[in-house]
Amino acid sequence: MQRNAREHPANRQAAQLATLLREKGQTLEEIAVTLNRTGYRTRRGKDFHATSVWRLLNGEPLARTAWFADADSSAANR
Length: 78
Known about the structure:
The chain contains five helices and no strands. Helix 2 (9-23) crosses helix 3 (28-37) and helix 3 crosses helix 4 (50-59). It is 65% helix and 0% strand. Mean pLDDT is 77; it is low at 60-78. By secondary structure, the chain is mainly alpha-helical.
């Protein structure tokens, strides 16, 4: 994610909400629907999709949560 996108205030808020929803077990697609329904848009004014939510979570340092570590360890155990 580009630095200006990471620092965009709305993206930071969306990342925080997305992180909370992911911790509650929502899929990336479910999170995208929630973000769109609550009025969030990407920095370029587009709707969120699963891929853009993944990028938002993956690119936002404050959004790196335990679920990334869990996913990494699960993949390593396969």
